[in-house]
Amino acid sequence: MSYETLIVETPSAGVALIRLNRPEALNALNSQLLGELSKALDAAEADETVRCLVLTGSDRAFAAGADIKEMSDKSYAQMFSADFFGAAARRIEQCRKPIIAAVAGYALGGGCELAMLCDFIIAAETAKFGQPEINLGVMPGIGGTQRLPRAVGKAKAMDMVLTARMMDAAEAERAGLVSRVVPADKMLEEALAAAAKIASQSPLAVAMNKELVNAAFETTLSTGVTMERRLFHSLFAFEDQKEGMAAFVEKRKPEFKGR
Ligand code: CO8
């Protein structure tokens, strides 16, 4: 499939790399880009050879937010009728395969929210995160007011959405927004290596791990822990569990088949 606002590649077995590609607008998220991203996720989800995705932008910007020029003249009726960006946000949120956000440069507004919709964020030292929508007289609209406090706590989230200040990569790592910070020239390499490692695991175990970590934000501790134990037990129905444990005992690398 070919896209105008994305570049999709397969850098190694099991890994799909999706690059946001609107350099003229610092990868601002418009309807076309988010429509194409939804299609690319559909394709990756349907492709059994894809086990993990990496979503990235350019050196200058992961994404500088939703496209202000596209939005500026819209009416409430238009925003509501189109459920503006609702479908795309749900598509990313509901992807069953892991997505790593590889962020360099600006991740602002919808760009920061897009990164937070992914499963974890690997940041270049140049990364800058922010929710500056208040400067435009609006607010985050793709989960920023909800996911940012869950990631960094109320104090920093409130500071960021009310003052529009940006957080650099070091602060984002200290605050728990990103999992790793690496030099800019190593960032993509690091993200692709993490994706390759995930792609080498049992896809069944990967999917269940992802589902349960996400469930931690939606359930009580006791419900989550019970769900985890049930799924742990259920993994014993798969050949991959037998293979993983046999390989450990036999001191060899496991070969997971996804069954
Ligand atoms: N939308 C449209 N175009 C953009 C955007 C954007 N968000 N960001 C940058 N651009 C464009 C600029 O207009 C400029 O284009 P042109 O050359 O044609 O004038 C080009 O990208 C380069 O940008 P700058 O010249 O401004 O580059 P600088 O290096 O000087 O500044 C900044 C970089 C600081 C990133 C600056 O561009 C900026 O502040 N951008 C806007 C950041 C922002 O406010 N983001 C939030 C947008 S609102 C949002 O994300 C809401 C999400 C929820 C939507 C859906 C809800 C349901």
UniProtKB/TrEMBL annotation:
Q: Which domain of life is it from?
A: Bacteria
UniProtKB keywords? Fatty acid metabolism, Lipid metabolism, Lyase
Among Pfam families, the record links this protein to: ECH_1
> What EC number(s) does this enzyme carry?
4.2.1.17
GO BP term, pick one: fatty acid beta-oxidation
Catalyzed reactions per annotation: a 4-saturated-(3S)-3-hydroxyacyl-CoA = a (3E)-enoyl-CoA + H2O; a (3S)-3-hydroxyacyl-CoA = a (2E)-enoyl-CoA + H2O
Which InterPro entries did the record assign? ClpP/crotonase-like_dom_sf, Enoyl-CoA_hyd/isom_CS, Enoyl-CoA_hydra/iso, Enoyl-CoA_hydra_C
Similarity field:
Belongs to the enoyl-CoA hydratase/isomerase family.
Q: What is this protein called?
A: enoyl-CoA hydratase
